[in-house]
Amino acid sequence: MPMISTRQLLTLVVFLAWPAHPAAADSGAPAPPVLVGMSEKVCQLTGEIDWETGQPTAARTMTNAGLEATDVGSPVEHEGKLFLLFGDTWPSPNEASFAAAEIPPDDAVGVIQRRKIPTGKDGKCLEMEIRHSSGEKKKFTPPTIVGPTHVKQGMFDVPTGGISAAGKFFAFFWTNHCMSPNPLKPLPASPLLRPTPVAKNDCPETDDRNSLGTAVMAQSEDEGRTFDHVVALPTGFNTPVAVNPALESEVPREQRLGVFIFAGPRYRASVPYLAYVPPESLSDTNAWRFFAGRNAEGKPKWLTRSQWQGAPAAPADWRPPQGAEVFSPDSDKERCIGELSVSWNRPLHKWLMAYNCEDSGIIEARIADAPWGPWSNPVRLLSSDGQYLCHLFMRPEGCGTQRDYWPMFKREGKLVHGVAYAPFILNRYTRPATEDGGYRGTIVYWIVSTWNPYQVILMRSHLRLDDNSRTRPHDRIVAND
User: How far is CA 291 from the centre of its chain?
Assistant: First the structure.
């Protein structure tokens, strides 16, 4: 894998410190969707014991796969199965170490075949199986990159997404980064800041490990067990996810350009960039076309990779092209996206983007008529406070006998506040919903990581469009379990 050089790192530093292009709010964007009621917990997907209820989870992942706790869970639909690519995974509470700079691959893979809508009432959740080794003592088996190209897959090096394209299973891996607070971004005075194994501003900023990291793409021929054919991703595409419109119904013909890849350059401090590529050419990043804004008619402008990255002889001059961000944030506070997912929502007939904002524990969503926007203003799906405390998240004062997953990170006697991140929509369960008045609506099922507890939760949200978008006749299905 081509490592990021010191010169390339300085290039990105120059770019990230550069003031954002001034831009007015996107015109022609749809109104944001309305969250009906509150987002609801359906079930705890990972772990042995449900943190809130104290009852065994449906998956019982410690007993069945030696998986005690984990996060992320990037979804990939491939050949009829739903694969979840989990991030840093604990084999047991005693073996989790946040002091080691390098450990072996520690991610995990969940496999789901269930298509029935999950209700949380049948005790089965998603009927997920964690891929594991055979033998008396079961242990989860990480998705492992093999072959001559070495890619770090230890602590904080995680899969960010994947896609099924041209009959192949692809995954994106973010690697070579350290989790010290980015020296380009002031350290927030927040109890929600993710704990890190290094001191403030202690990222080494070397070719081998730095605060930005690098991203690679690899492909699997054994359903995500092993990956090879490693490809370094283009500049700025550090935390990618992808969506294949060919696998979705009713996507407008003019939007079926190929696989769409969304990604940001900075973790929890970006607005996504966008590229597309024909599915059969996904591994050839020179075939990617990069979004650079919309023309006066609202049509997207696309650049080649050489136009996107500029002349190789002058990398220190690289800046993202004008209009590269898929929406125009009203302020730098909105330049906050970390993990994200993008899907085609058939009931709404819109594209739906869900993401976490900085380390604040806020999950937001936006909609658009096309992947390149214009994207709506955000609607809040979840926050890590209020009624969710001690139901989804640990509070600093504790939650009675409910387990503290981070006793090593107490601050002045306070526990680590639980925080929501990594919202991924599981589109196979998306369905229409209507209310009185015929508003077009949808029920979306999505997973979210909660940090404390360090687990992945299945959530359900009811979204509707405003009264300018009435329901089509075949969407008139009432939301129920």
Answer: 20
